[in-house]
Amino acid sequence: MNNVLPSPFVIAEAGKCIGCKACELACFAVHNDHNGVVAAVGTVTVPVIPRLHVVRTESFTLPVQCRQCENAPCAEACPVQAIRREEGTMVIHEESCIGCKGCAMACPFGAISLNKAFSNGKVVPQIQLKERQHNAMVRSAKVIAYKCDLCRTRDHKDGAMGNVPACVEVCPVGALSLVHPDTSVSRSRTAAAMRL
Amino acid sequence: MNRFVIADPDKCIGCHTCEVACVVAHAGNNMFLQDESGADFYPRLTVVETDEVTAPVQCRHCEDAPCANVCPNGSITSKDNSIFINQDSCIGCKTCMLVCPYGAITMVPAHKGGQKQLQSGLRSNTAGAWRSKERIVANKCDLCEDSGKGPECVRVCPTNALQFIVPSQIEDSISRKRLASAQSLLQFGGFSRL
Amino acid sequence: MSYKDPIIHIDEQLCTGCRRCAAVCPVGAIIGEPGHPQTIDAHRCVVCGQCVQICTAYAADNESTTASRAVKLQERGQLPNVREPLFAAYSSGDIQKVKAVLADPKRFKVVQCAPAIRVSLAEEFGLPFGTLTPGKMAAALRRLKFDRIYDTNFAADVTIMEEGSELIGRVMSGERLPMFTSCCPAWVKYAETAAPELLEHLSSCKSPMQMAGALFKTYGAQLDGIAPSDIFSVAVMPCTCKKFECSREEMSVDGYREVDLVITTRELASLIKDQGIDFIHLPDEPFDSPLGKYSGAGSIFGATGGVMEAAIRTGYELITHEQIPNLQLDFVRGEEGIRTAEVQIGELELKVAVVAGLKYVDAVLAKVAEGTCPYHFIEVMACPEGCVSGGGQPKLLLETQRKMAYQARKSALYRHDSHQKVRKSHENPDIIKLYKDFLGEPLGHTSHHLLHTKFVDRSFKEEMS
User: Fold this and answer.
1) Chain A touched by C398 (CB under 8 Å)
2) CATH 3.30.70.20, chain C: domain bounds
3) What CATH architecture applies to the domain A9-190?
4) Which of B30, B185, C157, C192 is the most exposed place for a label (fewest CB within 10 A)?
């Protein structure tokens, strides 16, 4: 048997979330080594671009993020194969992304957002593409798709406690979980059998 | 973010009306002044028909347009939330055509005032005779910017298979999907115990 | 000058009502329904800034409903070129005023930094937790055009001389015991608000920052031959409440404000960045003499238990006239909570307690009110691990790093202490000189005039104008 295990993913639990946005901030913090973002807020020189999004309404608040779909519509929509499955995670290769917005439109969760790319605390310019600004042709900012990658490239020197994504780790009320579908379903199944 | 036109393959019936409308819209009045035998039909979107799908494909006006990023002389630029080819300065290197992942760029003879444009210097030997070579330029969807009326293909499609997308629509759609996906989870829980 | 700005604010446009701030507020000053913007009861608020540290409700760039970033930066007293994200809970900044003063060649600008700044400032420039940078800090301040780089640590040594002498006096007479420390302005404001009947138990000493300020415009002015009116005194503090303390009406000397302005560690970092100073590559430079030279005891004031340890080092020797056998007093070092110890000093068994975190002080105050509190001397710091964890310190992006950060900052303070040649306040040669040339003796007439104060009952609700 050579079955591919279903991808783990992060999911939020309604009723627990208090809307503090610590998950968004942590997500941003651990994905921005290349922008010089370290421990202190003072090291941040780029806009906070999170890869999960706290939805807030009058009656509830809950973060939404990528479900690491097995038949990922985002990857299907990508014309340049910039979205690939790596070690069980759907990863956007930002350097290949051409900002076509296809993935963002294809995702039914709204888990993908397009935003400017930053490196070394500065906007990444286009290679050649220019636009007119104040009577001069200037290289515009590269725009890329952002989504949850389960912190797969996270540098665990930052005091991470285990192999869980930063959002799960910092949530003060335990509203976020990293679920491994195969083990969790087998647990539910065993529990169901016990009840028979 | 850029605007663009996109098709719904479930609605498209493969009638090619969009292609005709595109040609008419870009030819202006001069279309009918062309010599019939040499009349050019170069739509900026192409209806693809296969066993599985029928749909027009056109430029997505990518934020990081690969075509623009490989253009050697800055003939493809970003303008009013769209990607625009300046055919007057295009040198016909074909690289943009090659790198476009949508196949949305074609190389076509340049026209001005209904007439094919010829090179001023470059000559080519055709059937033993030296003639000025015609100019060949990159051609793609420009959202019918010059008409001021929006994309003609969208207007003419009999099944409304084509949609003109503006940036706020994408943002609104992402927000709506986020809200819906959060709402869908409201009655479920206990994930942390799994 | 009077207390107008409540200093700690919650931006109602950004607050999501998660109430994590309410959970860390030691005095229950944060009011509101979950899910709705919170407000601060300025009367109860002790301005410790712990809410500022915990808040994660940042302003997303694309939120069209909120006022523009430029407007908010202006409202918050921050420089327009600040690039870090803005959060719902914040403290009012004074950096624009400091910048204006620094550009004025007619003012004689004197600066002091609290002990906890040199162990955390580097974090703002991306260096690891616990990087110790007193030399770079002094170099940066000199490049910011301060005329004298003095230090709060020097005044911490003065505090030990005064407070230690006061304690010895009270223990000998048995009057007004236990004696509480008075260097933490948030604790002082709390005592004034919640337990005004116990104010006589507070040491009459001003905080090291105010003592330093008083000395700059008297002793310092004499040494430099400058008129006190020309001196502008700036303090860099890990603490948001120091902004309140410096504006207290009684904190003046001969009609001059002791400290004209307080900026936080974060504001100093922001100023250094604004001036394009390459902090990481600055050389180590010394502080200016004599008001910038300090002992190891002065430097540990920034950690919980530090004042106690410094006081015991000096108290032991003043009482017994013998050398203290061990300088490292581990029994007063530690984390959030209450620690107690009995210290044998000659004949005297000194009972001490260290309170780290204002929420733990109520139990102690209740005992004092009952007359059953067994201690002689109690150190109280409002913030969980002392000034290293103050509300004006570098704010962390990840809550999971907080323990590690505080631990590293404290270790750096103790490392700094252990590397000093002089580790006891009373052995600091410049302190000896200060008393010989200027103050006379601890608790003497000049000391009383410059370095001691009275506390006020704030239990009534002040009208905020």
Assistant:
1) yes
2) 1-92
3) 2-Layer Sandwich (3.30)
4) B30
